[in-house]
Amino acid sequence: MTTESVDTARELAAFLRARRERLDPGDFDLPARRQARRTPGLRREEVAELAGVSVDYVVRLEQGRGLRPSSDVVEALARALRLPAAERAYLFDLARQRPREAGTPATSAAAPLSGLVADLSPLPVMLVNHRFDILAWNHEMARLLVDFGTLPPERRNAMWLCLLHPEVRELYVDRERVVREGVAHLRSAWAAHPQDRALTGLIDGFLAADEQFARLWDERDIEVSGRGRKVLRHPDAGTIAVDFEVLAPLQDPGQRLLIFRAADAGSRAALDRLCAG
């Protein structure tokens, strides 16, 4: 499977089916039906009833028959399926009902942001775009993860490093969760940037090269994590727990600042020793 072979109508169909099937009918105030349920989740007619659309319309959407629902219908389906914010945005992207970001995707750091990355030392900081391409970094981030300057430009990608770099992939204590969150972000970015061939090619490469990525991609999780914690087992500094924050500059919305802070006193001391070297 490659992302190039999956058009948005088919993905919309698969996403609607997956989200319908995960719902518990007992959570809804629906009329009792005599026939036994043969599949998990809500029936199509129940989703249609909750969304205020015809059953035939839901059937055609789930069959990927090229329909483009209006924003009102997308909103009604999102409510009926009880989608959280990130999945709701993903549904709007698939239906092409969310405004597109102006301009082309960032491939280099905006000068003020590059300067900010340096000024935020001693906190480890890097600047990425929606593909997780690393556009700028400071000394502390390079010491914590890898010397980005020694990598060819096409390998300066946070997801590629986590999946395929032999040293970086071993840093994360909870690697399954880190990869899962990264896959969920890339799926959201893929729907929001349908014309980004570089992103499509990147995802196709991951699907072919990494079984874990392919498995998680098929689960269709959608979650953009702007805050959280990562625990790293560094070969030189030992265990370091960092809290991360992702900031989106108003002037350059296609770029993201990823800032790490030590989560406890021991991690702060280890990070200070590592970055002093």
Automatic annotation (TrEMBL):
Keyword Ribonucleoprotein found: no
Top-level division of the source organism's lineage: Bacteria
Key words, A-Z: DNA-binding
The protein's name in its UniProt record: Putative DNA-binding protein
Organism of derivation: Actinacidiphila reveromycinica
Gene Ontology molecular-function annotations: DNA binding
Domain HTH cro/C1-type: 34-88
DNA-binding as UniProt keyword: yes
